[in-house]
């Protein structure tokens, strides 16, 4: 069942995804934690709101929140995007990268150029036809793209989920919606599970390379 939402919810009205997160045993965190996360993730514009966390022994933290940014000119309501981030104490990736569903080839090239990155080829033509990966340091990211990692990314960016970008840094793996919408309950639950699956695949590669130290 899909949740309904208003186009511009009042600040005091929580989005539908927060109820789904609580049902998945996420817990709300205080405003101080929101500011700390904003700095950690280098959210240089906007703010973090409605931060929720899921903690389990032996697993990395899962964070769910809204990233809110003002629209240039102030002529429209703030732009709000749901994000989920997996945060680990150990290394997830040797360099930062992001992945999103492939549309027009020109769009992928423009995205890479705009961010100063390069397109990463996995060596799997079927995967590369469906997913774009951009990184500034191509070689170490290409070595991460084993068959299990590619399979996990295809699921994380699956067509049955809202359009999103996966982001990865040294110690975090994230999923960010492209449009302002409340993901339904099933999407919140599914993204959480698929982030953990992708994380496990990435850590397996790091262990196989002998680089899985904190």
Structural features, described:
With 214 residues, the protein is α+β, with helices and mostly antiparallel strands. It folds into 2 domains: 16-85, no CATH class; 97-208, no CATH class. It is 35% helix and 24% strand. The chain has helices spanning 16-23, 31-40, 105-115, 125-128, 138-144, 147-156, 185-208; strands spanning 27-28, 47-54, 61-69, 79-87, 97-101, 118-119, 131-135, 164-168, 172-177. Helix 1 (16-23) crosses helix 7 (185-208).
Task: Give the helix/strand layout.
Blueprint: H1 16-23, E1 27-28, H2 31-40, E2 47-54, E3 61-69, E4 79-87, E5 97-101, H3 105-115, E6 118-119, H4 125-128, E7 131-135, H5 138-144, H6 147-156, E8 164-168, E9 172-177, H7 185-208
Antiparallel strand pairs: 1-2, 2-3, 3-4, 4-9, 5-7, 5-8, 6-7, 8-9
Helix pairs in contact: 1-7, 6-7
Number of domains: 2
Fraction of residues in helix? 25-40%
Cα-atom Rg, whole angstroms? Answer: 17 Å
Number of alpha- plus pi-helical segments: 7
Q: Could you state the oligomeric state of the chains shown?
A: single chain
**What best-fitting shape do the alpha-carbon axes yield?**
globular
Low-confidence stretches: 1-12
Order of helices and strands: HEHEEEEHEHEHHEEH
Number of strands: 9
């Amino acid at each position: 069942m899909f949740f309904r939402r208003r186009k511009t919810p009042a600040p005091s009205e929580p989005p539908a995804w927060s109820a789904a997160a609580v049902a998945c045993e996420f817990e709300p965190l205080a405003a101080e934690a929101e500011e700390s996360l904003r700095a950690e993730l280098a959210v240089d514009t906007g703010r973090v709101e409605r931060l929720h966390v899921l903690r389990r022994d032996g697993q990395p933290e899962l964070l769910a929140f809204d990233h809110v940014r003002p629209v240039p000119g102030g002529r429209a309501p703030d732009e709000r995007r749901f994000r989920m981030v997996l945060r680990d104490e150990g290394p997830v990736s040797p360099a930062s990268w992001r992945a999103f569903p492939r549309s027009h080839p020109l769009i992928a090239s423009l995205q890479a150029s705009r961010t100063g990155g390069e397109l990463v080829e996995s060596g799997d033509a079927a995967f590369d036809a469906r997913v774009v990966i951009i990184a500034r340091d191509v070689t170490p990211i290409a070595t991460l793209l084993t068959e299990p990692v590619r399979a996990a990314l295809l699921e994380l960016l699956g067509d049955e989920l809202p359009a999103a970008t996966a982001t990865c840094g040294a110690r975090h793996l994230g999923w960010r919606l492209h449009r302002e919408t409340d993901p339904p309950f099933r999407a919140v639950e599914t993204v959480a599970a698929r982030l953990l699956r992708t994380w496990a695949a990435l850590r397996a590669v790091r262990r196989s390379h002998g680089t899985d130290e904190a």
